[in-house]
């Protein structure tokens, strides 16, 4: 797609204030725009995350997965655990993955490639 300019992932959430607190306050990502409780944009490295209120048409949780590649896996886990985030960690040969969820049970993960 030669005309592609930006990409984003939209996350359906139940409470805008709590979602922003999770992504900005706990994960340390940047809130770049907020339009009341209708929409917000969170900037992660090379990824824009759009937060949308869930509707009756959208099932909460298990409808997407956002991955964050990290280089200091263990210290990142400790930092986020101190913010109240729990992980399920797996080692799969050349990659370590730490699965967790946001407040609406959307699936997220940290990943570190083993060289």
TrEMBL record:
Pfam families: Glyoxalase. Signal peptide: none annotated. InterPro entries: Glyas_Bleomycin-R_OHBP_Dase, Glyas_Fos-R_dOase_dom, VOC_core. Residues 5-113 form the VOC domain. This is VOC family protein. It comes from Gaetbulibacter aestuarii.
């Amino acid at each position: 797609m030669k005309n592609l300019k930006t990409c984003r992932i939209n996350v359906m959430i139940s409470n805008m204030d709590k979602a922003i607190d999770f992504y900005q306050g706990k994960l340390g990502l940047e809130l770049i725009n907020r339009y009341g409780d209708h929409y917000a944009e969170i900037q992660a490295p090379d990824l824009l995350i759009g937060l949308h209120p869930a509707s009756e048409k959208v099932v909460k949780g298990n409808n997407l997965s956002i991955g964050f590649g990290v280089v200091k896996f263990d210290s990142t886990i400790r930092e986020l655990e101190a913010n109240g985030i729990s992980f399920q960690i797996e080692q799969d040969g050349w990659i370590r993955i730490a699965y967790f969820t946001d407040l609406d049970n959307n699936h997220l993960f940290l990943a570190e490639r083993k060289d």
